[in-house]
Each structure stands twice: as C-alpha cells, then as structure tokens.
Amino acid sequence: MSGKEFFLDRYERLGWKYQDVTLKQSIRVNNSNTNGKKLIQRLSDSGTHLQRIPFLESGYWVLNSKVSPGATAEYLLGMYSIQEAAAQIPASVFSHIKGRKVLDAAAAPGGKTVHLADLMENTGEIVALDVDKWRLNALCNHLERCRVSNTVVYLLDAQQASSLNLKFDRVLVDAPCSGNFAADRDWFKNRTLKDIERNAGLQRRILTEAVGCLNEEGEIVYSTCSLEPEEDELNIDWAIKNLNLQIEEIYCTGEKGVTNIFGKQLDPSIKNCKRLWPGETQGFFICKLKKRRLKS
Amino acid sequence: MNTRAITDFASQFGVQITLNLDLMVEKTGRFYLVNPSLKPVVRESFFSAGVYLGKAKEGKFFPSFYLLGMLAKKEANRIFLDKKSAWLFICGRDIFRESIVRIQGPGKKDTNTLVFNEFGECLGFGRIVEKLRESVMSNEIVVRNVLDIGDFLRRER
Q1: Does B62 touch chain A (CB under 8 A)?
Q2: What pLDDT is attached to residue B135?
Q3: Residue A20: which residues within 8 A CB-CB, separation 6 or more?
Q4: What interface predicted TM-score (ipTM) does this complex get?
C-alpha cells in the first residue's frame, strides 16, 4: 500500500483534490531581537522584498532577494528565522505562555523552540528534547544565534521525558512524522502505509509521555507535517479516548479536522483540530489538548 | 568552577566582568549562564543550558556571541566599520584602516577589539595588529578577524 495513486485516492476520500505545490520561502521575525517594521525596511534596502503572511503574527513570504535570506547579517544576528509558514503556527496556539514551564518534546532543529522563546520573551523555562545529537548541535546554534536564554536542552527521547521529574504547564509535541509531498519531492516514492502506521505508534507513545509530564491545567499542542490521518485525526481520537484528554478550539488558518476517516466515525470534537492541505503552506495538522476535567 | 578563562578573555578587551558562580554551569569545558528560575530544571545530563558563554580547550578560550554581547554592554574596546567592510568582516576577512569609521577605547596593539557595524550591532571580534590611532597606510591590515557571526554558517557545513 504505497505509491502516488494510493495516497492521492486517500486524500480525495478525505475531501481534498491533489494539486502540485511550489512552496514560497518564508521567514519569522524574532520580535525579542528586533523591531519588525525596521527589519522589513532594512531588508528591503538591501534587496530582500517581503510580503506579510496574512494568517500569521510575524511571518513574511520572501518575494525576491539579492542574497540568500539565510546569509544576511540580519539573519546571523538573530533578527529572524527561516521557518515554513505552517510551522509558525504551533507555538502560537498556546494560551498565556509567558513565564510558563514549557516542554518542547521533539525540538531539533529548533525553529519552534526559538519561536516559543520569542513568544515567552525569554521568561519562564523551556526544556527542549531530541534524540539526535547532530540535530541538537544545530538546535544549540539556533538558540545562540537568536540569543535565547530560557532554554535547557537534553539529549533525550521524548518517550522518556518523565525521567527528568518535571511537570510542565505547556507541552509542544511537534511529533516526528512521515512529512508530506509538498516539502519532499520524492515523498510518494519513499513512503508506505506501513511507515505511516509505525510513525503513528511512536506519536502515541510520545503523546502518552507528554500527558504524564503535564500539569493538571496544562495544555498540549500536537502537530505534524503529515497529511496521513493515522498520524493526525486518528491519533487524536485515540488520545481523547485513552489518555483522558479533550480538544480545545483553536483559532488559526486551516480546515476543520476530518471526523469521518474512510468510513470510521471519530469523536465529533475532532472538528476542532486544524488540517492544512498543501497550497499556501505545506501540509500540516495542529490541535490543542487539555486534561479532561472530572465532572463533580 | 574555574571561570578564569572567561574573565581573562574579557580583560583582553579592557573590561572586567563578574560572574555569579551560583548561576554558572559547566560541562566538558563549556560554560553556561542560567537565570535563577532556569537552574532548578538543569539536570546533570544537560546538553546545553541558558546562555552559552564559550569553551575552554587546551589552554585556549573560544567565546560565544552571547559573551561578546555581554562585553559590548560594557566599555570594551570597539571599532565601527563602514557597510562594505562590515559585510567583508562577516565573510571572514581582516580589517583595513580605511574601513574603520570610529574607534572607542585605546586601540592598543596586541589587544582585542569588538567589531560593530553601522547600526551598532556586534559582528564579532578581532586582534589589533597595528596601533589603531596611529596613521598607517590605509590599505594596511590593522585588525585580524578572530571570530565573526558568519561562523554560524561555517560551523554547519
């Protein structure tokens, strides 16, 4: 069960007709390090022209640029990060994040960690985990470049997060996933349903661990850049039935989560998840979860 | 914890810094500064914590850009470059006398100086190899590039 036709048929059954996508490069202004307006002017003066992304707070598409946006002085000074538009959403979905204790469960290469720190204005504490030492080096470079000061990094599998004996107010599970064709030209050639089911299993285990590390009133934001329902709606349906979680409504771009997956009816609250089909952004899935309150 | 490598490094810019040892953590020669609320979440197994200040290795000290930023907040030696030279500095090039638009500090030979762009942003540091305040040939190298922010690109190659 693999191949382009197999997956395109699934997407169509989920309500989306395939279209080829060319992603625009996008950046996110690090407001802790610069004034957005001044930065845009400064980049424009040196030949980098940007367009505001309407559904993001600090995101801009790069329309054209004389130099690579990843090699300007402004980039090297941490004034902005290069971050795909959809990837700029998850950190912004948390409520009241300043001063909180936050777990970034699968953090490398650190784009969302830096975004969290920026939203927190370097207050509170972020604990960032990843299993890949090489990618953690990239994360640490990213933190240094963007002058992040509120983060502790561990070489640790998110499935073992509880070994730190810490409880968190906010947990970001930007789960390791199968990705999507918009960000990977060879995606259809390289993926099978078996791979996807294996990733879905890993994501459930990470979610289970995340719940164990969460304070009673805490929030989990779960996201993937996968279009496959096993990693998205089906996992969240499983989580609300098995981990005593409820889905919170979120206000961001995207379509409602799909509540009927190939004939299987899911919990109606799944509609409060957001699914982004490739187009203006890559494919993405986001939802916010809280522990279910016991009825008295 | 011996933080002499850091304070000695700072003194090469003509400034003294005081570090709160209670808020410093060290791992394999790498020094980190954490804020008081962060310290309780730092376990022995940490990979990095708070802000990285630099690493001491084989008698040498390799500073981070955050440490340079700390020095920049003090009266450390500094020079300001014109736009083109600032770009060349980021690309790893040394500095000619004619590129410097302003000097702050004595600019003595064989000391270090922070290097700033026209916006007053610290781009790195260099070693003064000719007295900055003496008239020398405009095409003579006066500051050798030691570290610049282009390093963020080079270190990921």
Answers
A1: no
A2: 64
A3: none
A4: 0.95
